Amino acid sequence: GTPWTFVQKLIDVYPAGLLSPTKSGDTPLHLLVANAEHQLNEAGFLDRNTSKVVELLLSTPNKQKCALYMPNNENLYPLHCAAAFDAPLQLIRLLMESPHAAAASLLVTHSGWTAFHLACMAVSGNKPIDHVQALLTYKCCKLFDDNDRTPIMLALETNPASSKLIRCLVKACPKTSSL
């Protein structure tokens, strides 16, 4: 990957570059998230350099908007890309540690889906639920999509439904399980 010191120099010279989109509307953070599997070391973890690049891409120099709030042309925000492209769990956790993550987690696609909705739809059968747990916020549990479905409803529609995920959602979002 690109050395983080180079990324820092680019930001110092051109801070607006953090939010500069490609033709498809992807910011540098979108691109890093979508290609994160190429940034893993031999042990399957993000290396220190990539973690530092993520931290830099989440920065807000000159009080500019955080990249987590930037949709691409498909109206996917970086957290949505993390859920949709099965980003490494460590990367999702880094994104969710941002002070902007709580607000960014409530942003929706054209279908009214948060990143949490997408993550709930991606888990079926016995697949691990770590990604869903990393994106889970209480407010996201209560949000309805454009078809009046909460994340737990979407998880129940997945074939086969994940009993681990359903139990996790009922425990984390008890008021939404009775909707």
Helix content: 40-55%
Radius of gyration: 17 Å
- Series of H and E elements: HHHHHHHHHHH
- The helix/strand class is mainly alpha
Strand fraction equals under 5%
**Mean pLDDT across all amino acids:** 91
Distance between the termini: 46 Å
The number of strands is: 0
Let me know the largest β-sheet: none
Specify the overall morphology: globular
Total helical elements: 11
Please name the defining characteristics of this protein.
mainly alpha, 179 residues
Describe it for me?
The chain has 11 helices and no strands. The chain has helices at residues 4-13, 28-34, 48-57, 78-84, 89-96, 101-104, 115-122, 130-135, 138-142, 151-157, 163-172. The protein is globular and about 50 Å long. With 179 residues, it is mainly α. It starts with a helix and ends in a 7-residue tail after the last helix. The longest helix has 10 residues, at 4-13.
Which helices and strands occur, and which strands form pairs?
Blueprint: H1 4-13, H2 28-34, H3 48-57, H4 78-84, H5 89-96, H6 101-104, H7 115-122, H8 130-135, H9 138-142, H10 151-157, H11 163-172
Short description:
The protein is mainly α and 179 residues long.
